[in-house]
Design a protein that fits this description.
Blueprint lengths: L2 E7 L6 H14 L3 E5 L2 H6 L3 E4 L1 H4 L12 E2 L3 H4 L1 H13 L2 E8 L1 H12 L4 E5 L15 H22 L2 E6 L6 H9 L4 E3 L7 H13 L5 E6 L12 E2 L8 E2 L2 H12 L6 E5 L11 H19 L5 E6 L2 E6 L12 H10 L4
Parallel strand pairs: 1-2, 1-4, 1-5, 5-6, 6-13, 7-9, 7-12, 8-9
Antiparallel strand pairs: 2-3, 10-11, 13-14
Bound molecules: 6-O-phosphono-beta-D-fructofuranose.
């Protein structure tokens, strides 16, 4: 029986295991076994594998994280030896191809693998929902659900104590989670990286709510947000990091509001952070991951490699990796416009 390979690349998210399980089940239908590479492309370069079967995947549908481990290492970028090892290891397993479950930069790595002769099909995942070429990614729905629950809970305490509660959501450079959870959680102000924040306008909204007897305000802000007149994203760079880990913009907003009107508001900041990435996937994510898994196996075995499975206009589709790699998907302007009916923005 020939085999296909599978790996989870980049940051984890809920629904990865559901996709792995679906690939194993569909591969079985098509008389293929499945080899899992541990820790993404790193595991391919180092030939660290695990044999996957129905026996070791049947019960992982609702489990968060990835049984294969995750890593964003890209052997094709700057390490010639690792790149050659990855190709050699792929060939030594005599695989029909590789299914890469990843976000936008991982789809770039997948394309590099394809260009090195490894037939690849991508499955889009990330809580950020910023992968080009698909309407939705695995993990987004669960993250929105988690963030919505957090906003719901913070709202009741904000109301009881007349507080201005700032909730910082993840999402890197785009506000998909902030917008979706902000609408679902009934936030009063929603601030996203798509539009620089006008602190004075935020302060005016909070004051006008007070003037109308609403002493509390819930503000949702996406971690990648910037302020008008500045070009800074807030976060921390740890030694060895290739990119900045965002976090802290909520605190900066609180400081700026305090500076505008010292002592006026009871400001509180909650950074919900990695809670949004962990835990069990929602039923929507389980179904999406399961359908993506089935379609990815079919695409690989039917010769449609070089593509990423996707949902476009509500239907399963394939998007060429060349149209995905190196691109990012910002929040739809129509959705941003709709937000204004429910919340102030700036
Ligand atoms: O891409 C998913 C994501 O959770 C972003 O929302 C966030 O900025 C980043 O990953 C955090 O990554 P790390 O766990 O490496 O700090």
């Amino acid at each position: 029986m020939s085999s296909i390979g599978i790996m989870t690349v980049g940051g984890d998210c809920p629904g990865l295991n559901a996709a792995i399980r679906a690939v194993v089940f569909r591969a079985g239908d098509r008389d293929r076994s499945v080899v899992g590479f541990l820790d993404g492309f790193e595991g391919l370069a180092q030939d660290r594998t695990v044999a996957l079967s129905k026996a070791n995947t049947w019960d992982i549908l609702g489990r968060g994280g990835s049984i294969l481990g995750c890593s964003g290492e890209n052997p094709f970028r700057d390490d010639r030896e690792a790149a050659d090892a990855a190709v050699d290891n792929f060939n030594s397993h005599r695989l029909d191809g590789l299914i890469v479950i990843g976000g936008n930069s991982s789809m770039g790595t997948a394309l590099m693998a394809e260009e090195r002769g490894i037939p690849v099909v991508g499955i889009p995942k990330t809580i950020d929902n910023d992968v080009e070429g698909t309407d939705i990614t695995i993990g987004f729905d669960t993250a929105v659900q988690t963030a919505t629950e957090a906003i719901d809970r913070l709202r009741t305490t904000a109301e009881s104590h007349d507080r201005v509660m700032i909730v910082e959501t993840m999402g890197r450079d785009f506000g998909w989670i902030a917008v979706a959870a902000g609408i679902a959680g009934g936030a009063d102000i929603i601030l996203t990286p798509e539009e620089p924040v006008d602190v004075e306008a935020v302060a005016r909204t909070v004051k006008s709510r007070q003037d109308n007897g609403l002493e509390f305000t819930v503000i949702v802000i996406g971690e990648g947000a910037t302020f008008r007149g500045e070009d800074v994203q807030y976060g921390s760079q740890r030694p060895g990091d290739r990119y900045m880990h965002l976090s802290g913009v909520g605190r900066v907003l609180a400081d700026k509001l305090e500076e505008l009107d010292p002592g006026r508001w009871k400001l509180t900041v909650s950074v919900i952070g990695h809670l949004q990435r962990g835990g069990s996937p929602t039923s929507t994510d389980r179904i999406l991951a399961s359908r993506f898994g089935v379609r990815a196996v079919d695409a690989l075995l039917d010769g449609s490699h070089g593509n990423m499975v996707a949902i476009r206009d509500g239907k399963l589709a394939l998007t060429p990796l060349t149209e995905v790699a190196g691109k990012l998907k910002a929040v739809d302007p129509e959705l941003l416009a709709d937000v204004r009916t429910f919340a102030a923005t700036s």
